[in-house]
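Notes from hallway chat w/ T.B., transcribed later so I don't forget. T.B. wanted the structure written out for a chain they're using in a teaching module, and asked if we could keep both sequence and structure tokens in one place. Agreed to drop them here.
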Amino acid sequence: MSVAFDRDAISTFRFVDCGFDAASGVARLVYAFDDGPELVETVTIPGAPFTLDGARAAAVERATRLLHLIAGVSYFKAAVPATLRIDGYAIDGETASLLDDVYLHGLGEFAYRNGLDLRGRIRFPADASAADPAPALGLREHALVAIGGGKDSLVSIEALREAGIAQTVSWIGGSQLIRACAERTGLATLNVQRQLAPELFEYNRQGAYNGHIPVTAINSAILALAALVLDADQVVFSNERSASYGSLIEGSGEVNHQWSKGWAFEQAFGEHLQRLVAADLRYYSLLRPLSELAVARQFARIDRYDAHFSSCNRNFHLLGERPVNRWCGVCPKCHFVFLALAPFMPKPRLVAIFGRNLLDDASQVPGYDALIEYRDHKPFECVGEARESRAALAALAARPEWREDAIVERFVREIAPQLDGSGADVAGLLALEGEHRIPGALWERVRARFAA
């Protein structure tokens, strides 16, 4: 029997309990609203049974608790109650501060779309004294590399391969498209299963708040746990520097759809893991010093994934996908990836990948206007900065094979004359710059590849 869910009557969200069972490889994460039924999520790491010694078992417990706290955002958002309560254990002020940021900024788009103001409303209870620094575990040199089926992770995987880093290509969930991409790499694979509490879908039918969550933060916590269980010393993502820039919304300020892909989260989460979970567990994005255009240039040099990759978000839904059509051709991701690859890839190859020429379709004008922030704001999607899209269009405008296409021709005629020329140079956006957490020796090995 389903339980009635009244989001406005709920006062407390509870982190009830969590634990990792080495015999089955299952992490069990338990939540509840007020005194309502337990909401049980499971995360399953394949390869059990696992043998965990004292120090590693303790680190796995710390990582499981961190995952419990971060993954709770999927349930908290259903009612956004005023009080957060952790039943089974206590956390220190540093952990509470990290979680406050993850929930506040990671739910930024969710709050904007639902007309909510979360500032000052999210306060994790810091009940424990400062935690002792975590010890080093002597983890083996091995990388769990997150793969999402798009171009970015494939650029990382090939760069790590060339650098001689042992790696396992890792993903969460049942996407057949991601599986096909992962298998195409020819490397070892790890497919972690995440099973949400089924009550959440019932709550959604009964009027729960719904919307975008910081899924990269959750996946980062899952892979950090998996790395400790599987004895790997690195968790590698593929978030480039433009992920740190949000959409400027009139009256709301900056709202970043991909906040948990940005530098602020990477820095805070990576430092937290090393200080309080395991001193020798490294978390970083290999592409952080690159722009989206720089990543596109790298991907254009690799052709083995042309028939396998997709960055189209319409292919990736929690409850299924349509892998037959890898590109919908009408979403912001399709618009941007086509545009970003165009300066670096022969036109016939790019059109063959997408099945059509998106830049010669006048119906796509509003989508491209949003990408360049012309009479619209940047879409709530993982796309590059407006200056990157403007630079790519300016570059195509100078090329005979592209300049007659509808979107490019209109850019030349209507938009380019209004720009002051700043930020319209592709070459200037290809430089490697900005902060990153890539281990020094590895950065020396991959920097030359990325700069070339």
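Follow-up for T.B.: The first strand starts at residue 12 and ends at 21. Might be a good example for the class.
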